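--- STAGE predict ---
source: upstream dedup step, 1 unique chain passed
mode: sequence only
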Amino acid sequence: MKPSIFFELVEIKAKTASVFPFLMGTLYSYYHWHSINALELILFFIAMLLFNMAVDINDNYWDYKNATGSESFRRETNVIGVNNLNIHLVGWLDFSFSLVAGLIGLYIVYRTGIPLLIMGIFSFAIGFLYAGGPKPINRGPLGEFFSGFTMGYVIYLIAIYINTFDSPTAILDFKFYGDALLSSLLTVFAISNLLLANNIADDKEDIGLGRKTLVFYLGKSNSIFILKSLYVLGYLALTCSVIIGLLPKMMLLTFLITPIVYKNTIGFAKNPIKKKTFPLIIKNLLLITLTEVVTFGLGVLLKF
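--- STAGE serialize ---
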């Protein structure tokens, strides 16, 4: 398998959706508790990337397997069919990456505690049930919720936990998890919007493949309204987080990119086509998460 095909199979371009929440969680840990556990953090980063790649391989694998009534999708769209990949090799890659990620995860659990095991089991379950199983999540109306929540919040939360599990001042109570959720919502919604925009652009193809996504139930216009609303709610959550001290004031600079986010969103909403305007939503995710990390880093550095 050529490297370029492998990177397409694991959807390497989408890895910012997990790397930036990881970095945000690390910054959040240092901002509130000045606590960083380097070894556990590095191991988690490796396991996270491996499992993220395994999930994307799994998605492509099951999309190919489940598209029994659409040979055109297999031959022209799915990376496995387009590149004539050996389906058994793809399955073994998925298994191998998942196994290594799981073993690393269990070692980190041994060093940090049971809360990580619970979060890890949840992440693994969502990762595999997203495209696999008798009723895959991505073929129903909850794909946007689970993708945003798992990648935007759970990865962020795991990074925070790994850095603070041994901190005497970090109390793992309802407030701990609630604060983490509120402060991650802009990322959560930006990731959810990536899948929502994908489903809006693919609505006709999804119907042909038997997928009944959120767009199927709500229609295109309502789905576009939700997409716009989620960006607004994300920025409101960011503002609230700064006001109550969860995030540094420097993160208000994230609002500087809102004109670009708005322009990209309107461009997609007017003409939601996968190859032409969907990349605008990808750019939104990259811009938002990158700006969050940079401004958070500046806030930690300048203590403002």
